[in-house]
Amino acid sequence: MNAFADKPWLSAYAEGVPATIVPPTGSLVDMMDATVKTYTSAVALDFFGATTSYSLLGEQISRVANGLAKLGVKAGDRVALVLPNCPQHIVAFYAVLRLGAIVVEHNPLYTPRELRHQFEDHGARVAIVWDKVVDTVLAFPKDIAVRATVSVDVTRAMPFGKRVALRLPIPKARTARAALTSSTLSKGAISWDTLVTSRALRRSHPRPAVTDIAVLQYTSGTTGSPKGAILTHNNLYSNALQGAAWVPGLQPGKEVFYAVLPMFHAYGLTLCLTFAMSMGARLVLFPKFDPGLVLDAARTTPPTFLPAVPPIYDRLERAAAERKVSLTGIRFAISGAMNLPVATVQRWEAATGGLLVEGYGMTETSPVAAGNPIGPSRRPGTVGVPFPSTEIRVTDPDDPSVDRGFDEEGELLVRGPQVFAGYWNRSDETAAVLLADGWLRTGDIVRVSADGFITIVDRMKELIITGGFNVAPSEVEEALLAYPSVADVAVVGIPHESGGEVVTAAVVLVPGAVLDAPALRQHCRGLLSAYKVPRTIVQVDELPHSLIGKVLRRQVREQLTRTAG
């Protein structure tokens, strides 16, 4: 029996947050149309100071949709987007959806091999690509058969003065220009301008239904190699509505969201491409996270809502203190994708006067499934409670039909309107994680308190087995990060000849610090059981991170295993 069926967490919801959302009846296209109609003259996009109103954004979406239709894009087709954060990304996203086609998001910094694998999998015939990587797509073999590649120069969306500055014959300008654009149109590519100068799409053109597929988002999932998670209009629209319901005090049409997270990632996609747009917010776009660029923007257009990850909050708070830039006015900050240290929360809230809360999710939940309440009932150190219209179970990791109760460790299962429809062309892998009754196996080991707060123990595949005990890397990492000289850390299990694993920590020290392994172990012994204390501590210059700042433990483990061998 599901011990959590009565939803004890509802009493922890902030005042005014509903137990359920009203299900969307339209698609993301309908959502955007409603926003354009309601906030016609309001600023939708801000890119280095160049602004786009919602009225102009709606017109550009219609024109690009017509341009794509002329290229042969029709309902159900996949269209690949290989773009950084820029105005063209938002326009392309909604233009593809307007035709009933499917957006496939890609990391533009992927290697040619990584991009080719994804294109082979989804079979898109049209790609809208950052001009710096157009040649990579054009060089794909003929069996991939991309018939049209649209080249996007992101600098075209910048203010005229900044574009002129990028052309100055000085090293700094050349370096900045090279980071943003290739400056030339590759032979065989179509210019983005060709699409955006098309006529507006006929309003009678067929529109997508709420149940249609909107996005293929590539993820490693709970196991295995990258695969395309199928996210419907209902999945993504529902998650945007859940997010809006979760944050009391939001002012539609007046909020300023900062897009420092890449929008080709599920977290950035939902918080910026859908949630912010549904609120009629001003979305300030950054091609990549750079504390200097963010603080420059904050001087003229301060953010009110900042979704990010812990390393970004830490770096931004330190940079703001050094440059004496005020962060006050950021009322809401939502952290995800990795563990949020309590120390980060304390420093951020002292600097901003706003709230920083942790959420939980994965690509397969569009991505948010739970969050800390935006108010006094929040509980740092946990990922909060399930979102409105979301159910959870905790089960035996080896048998999801066996339920666990409060304060018992087990695998978290989630069910709700944001749960994905499966993996693209991978029925077996879909069946392994998406149960027949709609429950998603997350692959995360958790404990749930009697009042419904979820504590992540760790990923099942990253648990360290030592002496017959399970060790959660995140728990050991948080202990090590509390030591003053530790700037960054990854904890992994290194195979031992006994058959178990040795708890091993790779640490990055603050500048000027010297590794004192015995002192670090002594510090950990005051916070952790003896079997969790790292037996091996290795100093490294840096750790590998994903583009959203998450430490790549698998790479750390592989590197340390090679070194030990």
TrEMBL record:
Domain AMP-binding enzyme C-terminal: 475-550
One Pfam family from the record: AMP-binding_C
Listed InterPro entries: AMP-bd_C, AMP-bd_C_sf, AMP-binding_CS, AMP-dep_synth/lig_dom, ANL_N_sf, ATP-dep_AMP-bd_enzyme
Keywords in alphabetical order: Ligase
Matches recorded under CDD domains: FC-FACS_FadD_like (cd05936)
GO molecular function: ligase activity
UniProt key word Transcription: no
Domain of life of the organism encoding this protein: Bacteria
Domain (AMP-dependent synthetase/ligase) ranges: 34-424
Protein name per UniProt: Long-chain-fatty-acid--CoA ligase
Source organism of this protein record: Leifsonia kafniensis
